[in-house]
Amino acid sequence: MYALVDAVAFYASAEKVFNPALRTKPVVVLTNNDGCICAVCPIARRLNIPKFQPYFKVKHLLAKHNVVICSSNYELYADLSDKMMNIISRFCDNQYVYSIDESFLHFNGFTPLINDWHQYGQLIRRTVWRETKLPVGVGFGPTPTLAKAANHAAKKLSGFNGVAVIDNEQSRTTILAAMDVGDVWGVGRRLTKKLKLLNINSALDLAQQSPSHIKRLFSVVLARTVDELNGRPTLNWHDVQHNKREVFSTRSFANRLTCPIALKTALVSHAMIVARKLRAQHCVTKRLLLFIASSPHEQHYAKKSLIYELPTPSADSTIFANAVTAIFEQLYQVGVRYYKCGVGALEVSAAQFQQHDLFNQKTDNIKLMSCLDAVNKRYGADTLTLASQQQTNQWHMKRTFLSPHYTTRWHHLPKIACC
């Protein structure tokens, strides 16, 4: 049996954890630079607050309904996500963290101990709420795709109280018939349009197709989805847990930048993030992509990218920072109002399977990087940084409605007044 545990409007729910006054109010969270709405809590959803709309377009609507507006507090969300995943892991044999707010569970040895999947799902929900104050939905199914469908039913379809179980033919057909084909895991917008042209409108319609026919028309991936919707597991649990082939860190600026020092500082910071992500999945890269660009709405749009070849595969932050310094002059153009920049690691590979080069000795300082990661994990992000990251903060994004970093900064700890 598989399960998918998914937080309800995670970003918006996270804003309510340490501020109980918000729990009965409509809350929305904005994207980078307070650009668009990216999360809408259930209370705000009932007010028909649109998601993924530019903030300036719905500003008056939000004010009319007294909606609480929050900037994205990624440090808080990451810490709460880590706590939530650790709690969920206690309820299964094997866990795969699919995203910041979603986690697949696999039950094997636990199965004989579970008499009622509905009750077990409610136990997971109560435990997560008690220890983190985050609301979650739980879906159970004999395949990961059916578990995802059950989770959709638990959160979106009427008649379910946060938990849905697909464990027989009746529950499978009932839930799939009520799901739009576009809500099936792995079916995107373009594929949805093509399927609906063939009169495949619901998840049940897709499940009733011949896998071989779907494979000929579309792909082997969608054919496997058909098998999974019929209760035949085709996704190997370990195949799903693959490392990323490419790792990127990009961000737009709060204001246009013309200062080379600010731009270089931003690129170094992104390089640090990429290096940290590579170390987290025990990988290295030999090629770095760096780019800087102005806004496409500017009269003279400018964008330039360069690939830097490292002497040996690496995940060392200092080596990445030196790479930025080495090619920055080739990237930067005087007079351009820069809007965005980023760094990407291409052709990512596992660190343990590297063949050493006799003529290019590896210069990674593994112990230093381990110490850097350990300190930042214990005391909060950017507790330790490279000096080149701290030259200026002009490039930092705009977060006007940012909530405190309750769990990662000492001076933001909640204070209790005892009368």
UniProtKB/TrEMBL annotation:
Q: Which Pfam family, just one, is annotated for this protein?
A: IMS_HHH
Gene3D superfamilies per record: 3.30.70.270, 3.40.1170.60, 5' to 3' exonuclease, C-terminal subdomain (1.10.150.20)
| Keyword DNA damage set for record | yes
According to its UniProt record, which protein family does this protein belong to?
Belongs to the DNA polymerase type-Y family.
> Where would I find the UmuC domain in this sequence?
2-188
Keywords of the record? DNA damage, DNA repair, SOS mutagenesis, SOS response
Top-rank taxon = Bacteria
> What InterPro entries has UniProt attached to this entry?
DNA/RNA_pol_sf, DNA_pol_Y-fam_little_finger, DNA_polymerase-Y, DUF4113, PolY_HhH_motif, Rev_trsase/Diguanyl_cyclase, UmuC
Q: Which organism is it from?
A: Pseudoalteromonas haloplanktis
Q: What's the protein name?
A: Y-family DNA polymerase
- Where does the record locate the signal sequence feature? none
PROSITE patterns the UniProt entry points to: UMUC
